[in-house]
Amino acid sequence: MKVSMTRSAAVRAASMGALALALAGQAVHAQEAPQDAAAPAEEGEAIVVTGIRASLSKALDIKRSAQGVVDAISAEDIGKFPDTNLAESLQRITGVSIDRNSGEGSTVTVRGFGPDFNLVLLNGRQMPASSLGGSSGAPASRSFDFANLASEGIAGVEVYKSGRASLATGGIGSVINIKTAKPLERPGFHGSIGAKAVYDTSLFDGTSITPEVSGIISDTFADGRIGVLLTGSYQDRKASQAQFNAGWREGYLGSENNWGSLAQPGTPGAANIQNRPGPNDIYQVTQNAGYDFTTFRRKRINGQAVVQVKPIDTLTATVDYTFSQNTIDARTNSIGVWFNHGDTSSSWTDGPAAGPNFYAENFGGTDKDLAITGAVAANRSRNQSIGGNLKWDGPGGLRLELDGHHSTAESKPTKPYGSGIAVGSAIFGVKSQKVDYTSDMPVISVQMYPGAEIKASNIRPAGNAFRTAYMRDEINEVTFRGGWDFDASFIDSLDFGVTYTENKVRSAFGVIQNDTWGGTLSAAETPDDLYQIRDLPKDLAGMSGSNDGSIIPNYFNIDTDGLIRLLDSKIGICSTAVTAGTCIAKYTTDRTVRERTWAPYLQTKHSFDLGAGTANLRFGLRYEKTKVDSTAQVPIPVRTIWTGGNETAIDYGNPQQVAAASLKGEYENWLPAIDFDMEPIDNVRLRASYSQTITRPDYASLQGGTTLASPIRIGGSTASSGNPGLLPYKSNNVDLSAEWYYAPASYVSVGFFHKVVKNFISQTQVNQPAFGLTNAAAGANAAAARAALGPNATAQQLLDYIGANFPSTVIRDNNGVVTGVVGQASDPLVNFITTQPTNSDQKAKLWGWEFAVQHSFWDTGFGAILNYTVVKSDTKFDNTLRYTIPQFAVNGVSDSANAVLFYDKNGLQARVAYNWREGFLSGYGFDPYYVKAYGQFDASASYEIRKGVTVFVEGINITNADRKGYQRNSQTVFFAAPGYARYAAGARFTF
Predict the structure, then answer these.
(1) What is the pLDDT of residues 724-773, one digit of tens each?
(2) Cα 642 to Cα 476: distance, rounded to the nearest angstrom
(3) Per-residue pLDDT band at 354 (split at 50, 70, 90)
(4) CA 281/CA 276 separation, integer angstroms
(5) How many Å apart are CA 731 and CA 161, to the nearest integer?
(6) What number of other Cβ atoms are within 10 A of residue 396's Cβ?
(7) Which of 26, 75, 593, 940 is spaced 20 to 30 A from 770 at the CA atom?
(8) What domains appear along the chain, each with residue ranges and CATH number?
(9) Which of 638, 420, 466, 457 is nearest to 568 (CA)?
(10) Contact status, residue 420 vs residue 132, Cβ threshold 8 Å
(11) Percent of the chain with pLDDT over 70
């Protein structure tokens, strides 16, 4: 992760919307009153125990009887999972942490390994994954977004932390198997209908209450030989998020004297620095800072249909179809400042990694801008899967199963402007600006020149960007597996199987960017009603500093759609769109990766008496061979256009010309897995496992062809090419655990894990030109303009000079204004620092401990769950090293803990849960990005008012926990976001 230091990249960041806070938890429903143990059930009647305790008991049974280290969560009743969001439930498992997006659990980290290192299965099948990321480039992640799935049709989730030969590969952290309900597993007619009203306290305007409804119905026929199950859910959510964001220059040494660095002692400006960092201290200065205010609406639709047929007792056929769709429309309004690093003043904490107490700058002219941006991210993710399964229990302990599925995941924009847009405006006339970092919420303050007050009548439109991203993942998979149980043999069972998987991923990206940051239309030409003024401290409330008297007093709710229509009609900002009447950009990156994998496996089980019971020893071996075909539709650039300042765009022509570039690769792996478990004394189980597991590289690393970065700087630019020959990450894993099941639904466990991971991906760099592109910003005409106008000339003045003196080299808008200078053959060639991924010789060790206690307090109805995970690594980012020194560290390594207190008796259920994650390294480029430690309380209660009818309430993040991220020092803050509670009330009818 890297926060860009350019205006264009800040526009990209704005379109992502605000970073949301943690929201978790869900209501629980009443356990059916148990029958008197002395009274036998009527013949043919099934007694189904439900509720919190039943869910915990089922999860405990899975853990206790599992091969290797497995944790699980089970549904409390038909159509009732412990949490509405699967990721929120997973965070209760020892060693699992989650990341949130728009206030909901989205992706998981297991034992320090992030989303791309965890494989998600649906009923044992590998699931495709698609997302549009931050819309700053072609999507590349393999991570599965749990926000796409509702939980009503989920029967359980199993988290496999140790490897086994029969499991699909791809998860060094874990393999997570989501199991859906099946009608023949619970014969008879059953169903559940639920509805709730959700109130989100984060909304800036009003108290909008949104609905969530769900239903599941299951029935069996023909004496239990045929079963049909249908589920469906609809969720509509509205919420808002306020957030501070900042971009930083790379870490300087105190002794450096470069653009952006602090004035050296004895030079002009040095007197304005308090507690200046020492010569060997590292520090960073603010490049830009602002406040983002995002309001979003999310609509989620899920559905599933399952048909099962059991013509004979030993044969079961299943056909299932799963559908999910998640549609998000996020609108962000931003206000902020950019620094020129001229007449600055500042105050600093002590080194060796110093942070700013404040950073300020004065401006001598009236052309400095207060940046005002409207952004929209409107996208839809849709997942579909159809599969079939045939299972036969043959004679003599023979078991055979054939399973196949065709599944797709697709993410794309829903608006004619692309997947992420940002339309900039500005008020020109900042006299001075300052960012104070001493409060939880950094305080931005500005002084404006007379006539440049913060009001709509002073706003002018400026630069803009329209990004279009697309991703589609298609998986076709067939598995044949079987087993043979032996009597009176050294081998108790033999399991075998083979899987063929074809994974085809297309990801694409394009951008229309107009770098007219000096302004386009005048304020008089821009209707004031496009900008509705709002109270900034009011909408930012929640963290200390948000009500500071010096903070920027207002921001604007922008009619972004109306502003786009105005600018397109006046100056044609979308004239290069792929389709007239839209702002959909032509793809400048369009890649397809096809992976084909054959994976046979074999596993033996040996059981023998040892200690107080039976010991089990399993030997497994999985062989995988993967072929990779990577094709990229590489656009051919026709010229460059200097748009002013330090930004030169690449023009791909209209119509755009492309050429296909294809690369191939392949690899194979032998992956052993050994598991041993025994019971030395009654109710105590010891486990030991050794395995090798892999995780495949992201799709960008595998791409064919070369992608050029835009805009180009005067010093050059960057480019990237992929490498389909990359080997997967490979880990050697050791797992040890001891578990004591001392009472029903109660246990204590301690586990140790150790992983050694190799084949990490590093980047090699080559300096080279590309396609003969030149840069007018570094050419003779630009030099002549600078010489004639002097160092204080604005970007537009330089463009106008070249237009007047070298008219054949410029392009103009509809009003005749010079908007760019075309690179000429006589101008210097652009140097592209081209990177290509390679497998490095770097290795990382991760190890840790997992502690868990689950206890039910006799027959009181009360119970508690406590767990704590310690994760350590031999890699760490050193904040005191200069940014030019390469570093290597594993992201996401952190301790985590959970505490849950629950009550479940006589139709009343209640739960209070606390989830905590230690601060962690979330990513790094030249500089690190850390997320501050975070803890959240959730609570819920339900009551069964009559048999089958339950009412419930819930509260999520009830203490309004906030989140914060920083770089080398806790005061180099790159984001800060207040937290908001969410409440819901509803009812559920089960039959």
Answers:
(1) 999 999 999 999 999 999 998 899 999 999 999 999 998 888 888 989 99
(2) 46
(3) very high
(4) 9
(5) 13
(6) 8
(7) 593
(8) 7-249+284-775+829-990 (2.40.170.20)
(9) 466
(10) yes
(11) 93
pLDDT given for residue 560 in this prediction: 96
Question: DSSP string of 62-106?
Answer: HHHH-SSSEEEEE-SBTTB-SSSBHHHHHTTSTTEEEEEETTEEE
Q: Which amino acid is at 357?
A: N
C-beta separation of 700 from 630 below 8 A? no
Of 333, 242, 22, nearest to 977 by C-alpha is: 242
Contact 640, 775 (CB under 8 A): yes
> And the tokens for 475?
């998986």
Identify the burial level of 559 via C-beta atoms within 10 angstroms of its C-beta, where 0-12 means exposed, 13-18 middle and 19 or more buried.
Answer: middle
Tokens of 149: 């799935």
For residue 678, is pLDDT > 90?
yes
Note the Cα 819 to chain centre separation in Å.
Answer: 37
Separation between Cα atoms, residue 810 and residue 816, nearest integer Å? 11
Cα(542)–Cα(18) distance, integer angstroms: 15
Task: Write a three-state SS string for 363-401.
Answer: CCCCCCEEEEEEEEEEEEEEEEEEEEEEEEECHHHEEEE
Summarize the chain as % helix, strand, coil (round to 5). Answer: 10, 55, 35
Q: Which long-range contacts (CB under 8 A, 24 or more apart) does 886-891 make?
A: 887/924, 888/760, 888/762, 888/842, 888/844, 889/921, 889/924, 889/928, 890/112, 890/113, 890/757, 890/844, 890/846, 890/921, 891/114, 891/920, 891/921, 891/922, 891/923, 891/924
Is residue 7 pLDDT above 60, yes or no? no
Alpha-carbon gap, residue 398 to 494, rounded angstroms? 10
CA 260 to the chain's CA centroid: 32
Q: Which pLDDT score, from 0 to 100, does residue 3 have?
A: 34
Q: Which residues pair with 88 in a beta bridge?
A: none
Distance CA 546, CA 970 (A): 18
* Residues making up the chain, counted from first to last: 991
Task: For CA atoms 696, 697, 699, 704, give the dihedral sign.
Answer: negative
Which single residue is written with the structure tokens 């932390």?
Answer: 161
Q: Who's near 646: CB < 8 A, 6+ residues apart?
A: 6, 713, 714, 777
Confidence band of 144 (pLDDT split at 50, 70, 90):
confident
The per-residue DSSP string of 553-588 comes to -EEEEE-HHHHHHHHHHHH-TTTT-SSTTS-PPPPS
For the CA atoms of the chain, what is the radius of gyration? 30
In 175-331, alpha helices (H)? none
